[in-house]
Design goal:
Rossmann fold
């Protein structure tokens, strides 16, 4: 349930495959003493770098991350979603802006937000995109047309948009397969009742809490993904990256923060009626399904975990020689 933890484990695996020794430190409580203990265990080796992934579940409101540049040599930090940090959280990283070896962001927008806060930090800032969190296993599987929603099933994720689109498709006579893949993370009885009712009424198949290989199999067998994020798709949306990497035609919402490459490779939709109409046009052949395939291949290559690990190794070598 923690995207930062998932990112950390995948990066650690990719670095390990490349031959680096990777130690994951996950203190149950973040404190100055916990940071000192990490230094005692690892700080004596000149070929060691320390890399903080922030925030993750156990950090809470601890102030200790602000002291890490003073306690740990050769410190790197990746800030996930800096733009949504509270003002006190943003202020924690003044010391990093002066002393960290590198501060890494997933896109240039996040880097720009940080640089506006700390204009002197420019030479320390880098962008390394996040990777696909569902590794593609095998290739596309031929079969009937299938529409999927993939991700957390809760309010403010576009689920209502998806369900209304399914209702419109059924009302228009469509018999295409419709599936929901992900995890039910909302305990609100009213929302759960809405989902269960729509699933039963419109013949939607739910595939919940699947292991990664089964998720990949589901995506390989699908035609379209409808991912109507209320705040727009961005390159931090792992479900969108996974769907694109598996060859699905992705319909999603565009917003001011949507990067140009995602605008180019996805189909913009704003309402369920527009989603149903767009799918209908692609089914009858009056609208192309694949957009900018060469750009898509280029961007997905950059988000391969090996490429992400190589970029990190390059940065680390600058610190340790």
């Amino acid at each position: 349930m923690c995207g930062v933890a998932d990112y950390t484990y995948r990066l650690a695996d990719a670095l390990g495959i490349m031959g680096l020794e990777v130690v994951l430190e996950e203190p149950s409580t973040w404190s100055l003493e916990a940071a000192r203990a990490v230094r005692r265990r690892h700080g004596g080796r000149p070929d060691t770098v320390f890399h903080l992934q922030y925030p993750s579940l156990t950090m809470g409101n601890s102030l200790s991350p602000a002291a890490l540049p003073l306690l740990l040599p050769r410190l790197f930090v990746t800030l996930h979603e800096f733009r949504v940090f509270s003002l006190p959280r943003k202020a924690l990283f003044a010391s990093h802006s002066l002393l960290a070896r590198r501060i890494i962001f997933s896109n240039s927008t996040e880097r720009g937000n940080f640089q506006r806060w700390y204009p002197w930090s420019g030479s320390r800032l880098d962008v390394v995109p996040i990777g696909n969190n569902i590794t593609r296993i095998g290739g596309r599987v031929p079969g009937p047309e299938r529409l999927v929603y993939f991700g957390q099933i809760s309010r403010n994720k576009g689920v209502e948009h998806f369900l209304e689109t399914a209702a419109l498709l059924r009302a228009a006579g469509s018999s295409m397969e419709i599936r929901m893949i992900g995890a039910m993370t909302d305990n609100d009885p009213e929302f759960r009742s809405l989902v269960h009712g729509a699933v039963a009424q419109h013949g939607i198949v739910k595939r919940l809490s699947l292991p990664a290989d089964e998720v990949s199999a589901e995506l390989n067998a699908a035609s379209f993904a409808l991912l109507p994020f209320p705040d727009g798709v961005s390159d931090k949306r792992g479900s969108a990256l996974a769907a694109l990497d598996h060859g699905l035609t992705v319909l999603t919402t565009h917003a001011a923060a949507t990067p140009g490459w995602l605008r180019a490779v996805t189909h913009p939709v704003a309402t369920p009626a527009e989603s149903a109409a767009t799918i209908g046009r692609m089914l009858d052949g009056t609208l192309l399904r694949r957009k900018a395939p060469e750009l898509l291949e280029q961007e997905m290559h950059a988000r391969d975990w090996r490429q992400i690990a190589l970029r990190h190794v390059s940065l680390y070598r600058q610190a340790v020689g």
